[in-house]
Fold:
Amino acid sequence: MHHAPLRTDTAGRVTSRLSWWPAGLGLAALLFAAGATPVNAHRSEQGVKSGKSAAKTPLSAWYAKGNSKDPVQIIVSLPERRLTVYRGDEVVASSRVSTGRKGFATPSGMFSILQKNRDHRSNIFSGVPMPYMQRLTWSGIALHGFTSVPNVPASAGCVRIPMSFAGQLFKFTEMGAHVIVANEKTEPIDIENDNLIQPVPRTPLILASAEQEEGAVRSDILAAGKKRSTSPLRILITRRSANGRIREVQKLLDELTFEPGDVDGWMGPDTAKSIRRFQATYGLKVNGRISEELVEKLYEITGKDIPPNGRLYVRQNFKPVFNAPVVIRNEEQTLGSHLFTAMYFEPDATQARWTAVTLKKGSPPNRHALHGGLIKQPLKGVDQSAEALDAATAGDVMNRIVIPPETRLRLARMLTPGSSIAISDDGISWETTPKGGSDFIVLMQ
Structure:
């Protein structure tokens, strides 16, 4: 049975467990294959069973009609070198794995299955067979079968899986399924929070204020009775990026005819010269650098409001859909990294059950991070200590996000089972393809 979801107050603390939550739709099966072992029920930090034990049933039970319709999620524990398959918050199966050796550490973070190839061969390591390949990044990280899976770090970054287990996992997963690689023990737990997005039924809505809604939001309302995509949404909420801030400064300087060069979000010599000219004109310290004082003066001169400190990005089917500003309360506090996933709900439902997975520890810099040219830098003015990360619970962080009503309504209209919300200080990684071809990839270094 599903355990009762966590109830959090406005401070993100667990306050109660709801006793009315319906029973699960069925038992999950344990996979008996090379490297597969029984999975015992385990407990969350709050002392409640959150990973359900898998029953000793045949493989066919994975696909039985009685099984849950909740989304499949995979968690790879790097310290334990163990892969666990979840259907919702129920453990389906588990297997030992081999992960990246020193210098080739498997990156921790939040991924999705981007590609599946039963007979893949490596295009990096001289055509080495990588059967049952399930790609996590386009730079070369994947789950795949291998003939030798010792209980030690042995790969060049991929997650090696015993061959027979890899074959069953390949059949069970779908494109876009989340894969979480963790440098700690973590698991999905039920969470209930008033700030989570809830679905709007497909039946027609009557809204007297519909004519006041703008653009795509108004279209979403008026199209309430029409069929919507069944593909899950991928939502990422993070801090406004440094590149975004530079782009905003460039745009304002360009409007004021200070000629900053290309409005591209990169701090080049033309932008620095433009800033110096602006600083000299308006009596600021002339250094060619972006500062709070500079930003405030630019918005004051142009008569515009300073944008919020956060951004919400949406993808569907590996393609960008839209993005919008959000407010992050208490911005001096870390967000940590959390993945919220909507469980199955009926088309006319107004309430979705959500689970949350929290990550705290990153991976050491390796060739994958160096290849991207980006090594994580500490956020200025943000406490990211171990104590601060422990305090940044999923419920607390969700309560700090202020989503504008029109954006919330649009997301509610688009929400489908399996949709997810990632919240992270780490932002959009270089592994996320800008124009499509991937979901949001959050790397933790």
Observations:
- The chain has a mean pLDDT of 79.
- Residues 242-255 form the longest helix (14 residues).
